[in-house]
Amino acid sequence: YLNLYYHPWEFTNLKDKERFGFPGYVSKNSGEDMTQRMDLLIKSFKAKGYPFGTFKEFIKTISRESE
Fold first, then answer.
1. CA angle, corner 42, sides to 36 and 46, nearest 5?
2. For the chain, how many structural domains are there in total?
3. Which of 8, 11, 13, 37 has the fewest C-beta atoms lying within 10 Å of its C-beta?
4. What is the pLDDT of residues 13-55, one digit of tens each?
5. 2 assigned to some structural domain
6. DSSP structural state of residue 12
C-alpha cells in the first residue's frame, strides 16, 4: 500500500520570490509544474494497473484481510 500526501499549496504557483519569499527547493515544482508531475504519476500508476481508492475503501480491504 502507498499513501501520498501533498499540501494544497504545492499546486499553487509559488515562484514569485518577491511575493512569497520561498527558497527554490520549495517553489521549484509548484503550480502547473506540480499539476503536470502529479498527472504523469497517476497515469504511470494507472498504466501499471495499480488500484486507487479512498481511505474508507482501504480500511475495508485491510479489515477483510485480517479476518
1. 145
2. 1
3. 8
4. 999 989 999 999 989 999 999 999 999 999 999 999 999 999 9
5. no
6. S
